[in-house]
Structure formats: C-alpha cells, structure tokens
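Support request, please re-run this one:
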Amino acid sequence: MNQQLIRLKVLQIVVDGILIFAAFTLAYFLRVGFLFSTDFPFGKYITIALITTPITLIFMFFARAYKLNLQIMSIRHMQRIAFVALENVAVFMVLYYFAYHNFFSRLILVYIFLLTFLFVYFWHRLFRWIMQKSSEVEIGIYRTLVIGANRPAEEIVKRLIQAKSHIKPVAIIDAFGGGKSIIAGVPVVGKMNMFEKAIAQYDIDHILQVDHLEQTLNIINYALSNNIKYMMPPELLGIFQGEQHIEEIEGQPFLKVMRKKHWWDRIW
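Re-run finished. Output below.
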C-alpha cells in the first residue's frame, strides 16, 4: 500500500475512534440529560468508554471494515458496521460490570448501539466520497496496467473510471494489437512487447489481466518479482456464471464456484 493510501486509512481509523467515543458521550447525555448525574458518575462511565474504543477499533480490523475494495453502500457493509456496534456495546457492558458491579440504565446501551452505527456508517460513506475525490487528482491510487483491450476489458476500465476507484487504469496493453488507441480516456500503449516498458513509464502498482491467458504465468512471475499487485477476473478462465470465491481446504486455496448463493452461505 502506498504512503498516500496509508495516510488516508489512518485518517479513517482516527475519525472512527473519535466518533465511537463521541457516541458514548452523546449516549450518556441523552440518557441522563445534559448534566452530570451523581447516580451514574460520568467519570466512571467515560473511563470504560476510553478503554472500549480502541478494542472496538481492533475488532473493526478483524471484521475487515477497512478493506479498500469494500462496497460502502451495500447491505453487507451495513451488516458489518451493525455487528461492530453490537460488539462495542457488549465490550462496554462487560467491562463496566466487572469494574463497578452495577449499571444505571439499559437504555443507554441502545443509544450507544444506534449512535455508533450511525456515526461510523455515515462517516464511511463520507470517506468513500473523499477517496473518490482523491482518485480524481491521483492521490491514494493504485496506478493500474490493464492487460487486454477486448469487450470485457473495456467494461472493466469504464466501470473503474466511472466509479472513481482507487484502482485507476492508466495504461492498457492490447494483447493482439490492431484495436482502439484509447479506451475511456486510457491510452492503449501497444502489445505485450511493450509490457515492461509500460510498467516503467507509467509507474505501475497494479496489473489487471483481462485477456492473453497464455501469458498468465509470465505476468504473475513478473508481478511477484517486482512487488506489483496482480488481479484477474474469473471470466478469463471461462467462468461466466455462479458465485465465486476463494476457499481453503486443509490450507490449500481453491476457487469455489456455486450455482446459487443462499443467505446461509454467508454464515456457514
């Protein structure tokens, strides 16, 4: 990950921490009123909140809430943030009971859950917008070389450009030549004989192979030896239908293809 992306991700995590702590603070005042209650001391409450907040941030890493390719607007991400908010409440409740043995209100736990979810989710949506604006000025992006100029490659390039993705195509290799010179504003720099030159010229961080399957092994070996990220769509292997994901069997990774994905496949 480049330095600009690291700074952007650190910003996201720091703001998450501030917002989670703010959710605890606001939940307290919503429950007891905008004053300090002697029945429910603010000092004890906020101390446990300070301890809980970094634990929740660590949990967000395990929940994969900071992956760069997350679909922030998806139901899946909303579920992920809701699960994090529930964990936040659970950790706070356990720590408070262990430390002070009694609790003033159960309603405040509901407030903590709702505020944590709302603050974090809408911040992630705003951060997605920040990432898109950064991509427009080429801050925090993976400069991507696309291998292929066929129709699937065109669709992928257009989708990445329109979505203002951090995976930003900056050059295209036409495996067989003789096609378009520009696709969605991205130059086609030549055939595979221009591969290494294009990587050096455009300072490539990422290779996205959509065509020229027979050169896959060479491309992967070059990417690994030069610390360049490599990706390929399953369509390149002739897989056009079904749900695909990587699954390990006794430590060995396999590409798993299923005819239809049921809701229980997400938890089983």
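The first helix runs from residue 3 to 32. The first strand starts at residue 142 and ends at 147.
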